Structures are given as structure tokens and as C-alpha cells.
Amino acid sequence: MLQIAATELEKETAAKEQEKATYLAEHCPPLHLPGSMQELQELCKKLHAKVEEVDEERYDTEVKLQKTTKELEDLSQKLFDLRGKFKRPPLRRVRMSADAMLRALLGSKHKVCMDLRANLKQVKKEETDKEKDLRDVGDWRKNIEEKSGMEGRKKMFEGGGGE
Predict the structure, then answer these.
(1) Helix, strand, or coil here: 115?
(2) Average pLDDT over residues 60-67
(3) Which end of the chain is more exposed for a tag (fewer CB within 10 A), N or C?
(4) 147: Cβ contacts below 8 Å, ≥ 6 apart
């Protein structure tokens, strides 16, 4: 396993070196230095011209980058200002019947009746024993006044709690 991995690594490094050599051969022509002084000066002038072109392109891209970052900062500042100034108004409850709401949505030409209460059943309430007992007890203050003092305590012992 380790030997296979080692051979694969060697193959990868060799392939990378080959790729690097082909890239340099395509993009960087081999440098041949001329023997005379005048040819060297011409070569230097060409190289300086290429360096100036690259510097101009770099400067242009930097200026574009600065301009876009400035614009982005301005827009984010405007967004922040707008968020800070705008306050949401408190919403109020609108009391509107279903009929009025449908009239507002559909217009006055459409006659739609949404009387939901008419569809409800009439249910009679039956009194239960617990409710009757609660009504019969009456006011709780009367019971306490009757039980207060010595007479109330006598009644509790004699009559089983005054009930």
C-alpha cells in the first residue's frame, strides 16, 4: 500500500513539473540575450513597455475596485439610514362585518350575505344541580356573620355546623 502511494506521489510531482514546463514554454518565450549594446537597449525598452502596460491594467483594476467598494459602502449606509428612520406604525384593529368586508372586496354590485349567526342552532341551557346549589348558598358574608360570636359556635356544636 505504501509503495503504491509513494509511486503515485512521484507520478503526480512529475506531472506537475511537466505541466509547469509546458505553461512556461507557452507564456514565456525563451530569453536570448543579444550580444550588442544596441540590441540590449531595445530589449530593455520592450520589457519596460510591457511592464507599463501591466501597471496600467493593475492601476485600472485597483481604481475600479476602490470605486465599487465606495459605492457599496454608500449603499449600505443609505440602507442603514432608511432602516433607522422608518418606524412601523402601530396596527389598529378594524371592526368590520363579514358583509362589509365582502362588499369592499367584491364591490357593491355583488349581493352576498354572510349572516353567520342565522346558521347557528338555538340551544336551551339546562340547569344542573351544582348550579342550583351555588345559587341557593347565596351570599357568603351572611354565613360568616351567623357563625361569628358565641351563638354561632353553639349552633355549630348543636346543629351540626349551622347547615
Answers:
(1) coil
(2) 96
(3) N
(4) 153, 155, 156, 162
- Nearest residue to 162 via CA among 133, 153, 142: 153
Task: Give the model confidence (pLDDT) of 67-113 as tens digits.
Answer: 999 999 999 888 888 877 766 778 888 777 777 777 777 776 666 66
Angle between helices 149-159 and 140-147 (to 10 degrees): 90
Cα-trace Rg, the chain: 49
Q: Which amino acid is at 119?
A: N
Q: What is the pTM of this model?
A: 0.33
For 43, counting Cβ atoms within 10 Å of its Cβ (0-12 exposed, 13-18 middle, 19+ buried), the class is middle
For residues 63 and 67, give the distance between their C-alpha atoms in angstroms, rounded to a whole number.
6
Q: Residue 144 corresponds to which cell in the numbers above?
A: 360568616
DSSP string, 82-109: HHHH--PPPP------HHHHHHHHH-SS
Residue 112, classed as helix, strand or coil, is coil
Grid cell at residue 43? 530589449
The answer to whether the beta carbons of residues 34 and 43 sit under 8 Å apart is: yes
